Amino acid sequence: MESRTIVVGDIHGCYDELMDLLAQLDFGPGDRLVSVGDLITKGPKDREVLELFITDSRFTAVIGNHDLALRRVWNGENLDLKAAQKETHRELGPDKDSFLPYLNSLPFMIDLGSHLVVHAGVRPNVELHSQTTEDLTQIRTLGEDRESKDGKPWYEAYHGEKFVLFGHWPASEPRRGQMALGLDTGCVYGHQLTAYTVETAALTYVNARLAYAS
Fold it and tell me: What is the DSSP string of 7-57?
């Protein structure tokens, strides 16, 4: 089997579902998995997810907004954490020295050539090198508040050269633009974990075992 690059939606500590997905994909030694970020928070097995990504070189990720919040606090910033982030901080904080170097290594985007992986999205008509970290980790719509769910989704206005694979904004089906695809299908909320195989454009889904967050 030829090697594949597989991009997976927000995992949020759903380690068991990730294992189910890898089994369904028959994930092999020559394959690569890229996460759209939010490896941790809200789900039951943050530690197992991080340890997998740290120890297996086939796994890489961009940083998500929840990962970034923990990274900033563990690096000494005074930041108000959300409830789920506080819980992860309590769980993993005593071992942050094991996890922080990895979180510090995560980029805001991964360029796969024809495809670009980011957590939340990109601002249309802005060069990639000029994208802000806030947009890359938070953007949903193009109004005054980038995090608002009301307004024109960024991916409906994006027509760049690279096909963008993103997460952050869960939906029951992958969000679709002409040159973008959203892979967060709400696994942590009891829905599905979704993967996209770059070479074939095939989507693979597994159902969540439980709803871990609401």
Answer: EE---TT-HHHHHHHHHHHT--TT-EEEE-S--SSSSS-HHHHHHHHHH-T
Q: What is the 3-state secondary structure (H, E, C) of 91-151?
A: HHHHHHHHHHHHHHHCCCEEECCCEEEECCCCCCCCCHHHCCHHHHHHCCECCCCCCCCCC
Could you report the per-residue pLDDT of 79-110, keeping only the tens digit for each? 999 999 999 999 999 999 999 999 999 999 99
Q: Please give the domain boundaries of the chain with CATH numbers for all domains.
A: 5-207 (3.60.21.10)
Taking the whole predicted model, whether its pTM rises above 0.85 is answered as yes
What is the residue type of 12?
Answer: H
* Total Cβ atoms within 10 A of residue 26: 9
Question: What phi and psi, each to the nearest 5 degrees, are found at residue 31?
Answer: -85, 160
